[in-house]
Amino acid sequence: MLQPINVSLESLNLITLAPMLIAIAGGLIILIIDLINEKLHKSLYVMLTLLILFIDFGAVLGLNVNERGFFDVMMIDGISIISQLMVIAGSMLFIPLALTSKRFHEFEYPEFFALFLFMIAGFQFMVASDNLILIFVGLETASLSLYTLIALHNRSNSYEAAVKYFTMGALAAGFFAMGSAVVYAMTGSIELYQVAEVLAARMSGAIEPVPVIAVLGSSILLMVAFAFKLSLFPFHTWAPDVYEGASAPLAGYMSVVPKIAAFVVSIRIFGMYIDLGVEWVRDIILVLAVLTMTLANVMALVQQDVKRMLAYSSISHAGFIVAALALDTTEGNTAIFLYYALFMFTNLGAFAMLWISRHKVRRFNNRYDHPYEKFAGMIKIVPMGAVVMGLFMLSLAGVPPFSVFWGKIYVMQAAVNAGYIWLAIVMGLNSAIAAYYYLKLVVYMFLKEPVKDVDTVYYNISKPLMAIIGLATVATVAAIFYVQPLISYLYYMISASGY
Fold first, then answer.
1. Which residues fall within 8 angstroms of residue 177, CB to CB, at 6 or more apart?
2. Residues 350-362: pLDDT tens digits?
3. Residues 6+ apart with CB under 8 A from 374
4. Which pLDDT does position 253 carry in this prediction?
5. HSE of 284, CA atoms in CB hemisphere, 13 A
6. pLDDT at 101
7. Percentage of residues of the chain with pLDDT beyond 70
8. pLDDT for res 456
9. How far apart are CA 113 and CA 106, in angstroms?
């Protein structure tokens, strides 16, 4: 006769689930409110979503480092806490943009905000677990919500973008599932800490040796899955079309927040392989990093649309950060979070600036919404807007002393300290290439004459939008003075987690 299993609430440590449950409950509350009264103004949902995010942020801050919960599938370490805070902070920057305009009808739907909160819960599950099944569930929850958010933009290229993203996401999910299956076949476990122990024993010969082809196969399958998610070469082709089809703020959000979650899982999985001495994993990641940053920069040089240029720029930045992943050092992992903490404000600010000049009718180009000609002479039309956009471009280019410069210099320092001087040189050369296409927009804004009869009425500058762009501007400049305390905090949290 089977004996009943007694599980106490204390042993489950349900507090580790609290942040995700808050986001899920918030999404359900929004749907229930809409069922009760369909005629409520959208601003209620915006403020309710912000309130839920603030509560979620507080719940994450209240977590203790290096705890496990819910049958040990939840893992709260320094990386988990940092990444959840960054995901929620990026979301709190994005959501107030829904108050800025009535032209984008997706913000009229309460379902938009519910899906957004479900997506955040998915990202939080991804970063707060080392269980491959829970990571997969979080990945798919976030991805399915994001596909729908893109399609809600309700333009022909938005539907196309959502279908392309869905197709690429389905491929990535398939590769992840197959890679996880191979890992389970080799080790009999899906918990990464147990997988590492079994693989270490099998690779040392202490127990039955593992076939090399199985280790190679599992690592490559998982690497392909995350190369799709991080838009690494040659799996990056979906990104420019999807960014172009999504609304400008959502494209900026996609360039940062989903990649933070994907990088956390990559640190856990590929860091495990490198720690086990599987050097070809490091070599493949380095090759992907160099190809991604170089080819994305070359493609960005020939773009005629600013939004597509920023899409290729985001791919290049992802390649830059993947190089830090390959180092597998505490300094390298710290560089990943430092880079995205600084990049988040600047890139979201740049995409929000595109929304200022958004118009239903393509007045400058039949193909693109944001051709360079649209920004010609912007200094004479919206002087402050041109100055702020110029600041974002200089920061993204890595011009000292603005925020992203500190991220780039820290990644290069980590590469040099790990003995990869050649990698730091490649990064420096790519930063020089990137400066050209960022400065091209600056030249258009400050040195060229305005095209056609554009006036200030063409630019949609509302108070919420100004507040968000102002916050992004302050963060970009404030990084000059506060980057060292941020580095110290990140380094402490990551080293405390054993990474």
1. 136
2. 887 777 665 555 5
3. 306, 357, 363, 364, 365, 451, 454
4. 84
5. 19
6. 54
7. 88
8. 45
9. 10
Whether the Cβ atoms of residue 316 and residue 434 lie closer than 8 Å to each other: yes
Q: Which domain holds residue 140?
A: 12-496
Q: Kindly tell me the sign of the dihedral angle through the C-alpha atoms of 332, 337, 342, 348.
A: positive
Q: Are 235 and 174 in contact (CB under 8 A)?
A: no
44-79: burial string, b at 16+ Cβ within 10 Å, e else: ebbebbbebbebbbebbeebeeeebbbebbbbbbbb
Is 7 inside any structural domain?
A: no
Residue whose tokens read 């992943």: 325
Examine residue 223 and state whether it is found in any structural domain, yes or no.
Answer: yes
Question: Which residues neighbour 366 within 8 Å (Cβ) at sequence distance 6 or greater?
Answer: none
Contacts with 202 (C-beta within 8 Å, 6 or more apart), sequence order: 186, 187, 208, 209, 210
Half-sphere exposure of 222 (CA within 13 A, CB side): 28
Q: Would you say 252 and 351 are in contact if contact means Cβ atoms under 8 Å apart?
A: yes
Q: Under a CB-based contact definition with an 8 Å cutoff, are residues 416 and 424 in contact?
A: yes
Q: Distance between CA atoms of 224 and 376, rounded to whole angstroms?
A: 40
What angle, rounded to 10 degrees, do the helices at 156-187 and 212-229 form? 160
Q: Within a domain: residue 456?
A: yes
Which residue is associated with the tokens 């420019």? 240
- Give the per-residue pLDDT at 291: 92
Number of structural domains found in the chain: 1
Rg (CA), the chain: 23
* Domain-embedded: residue 1: no
Beta bridge partners of 67: 76
Regions in the chain scoring below 70 on pLDDT: 1-12, 98-108, 154-156, 205-206, 356-369, 451-465, 498-499
Contacts with 113 (C-beta within 8 Å, 6 or more apart), sequence order: 27, 30, 45, 46, 48, 49, 95, 98
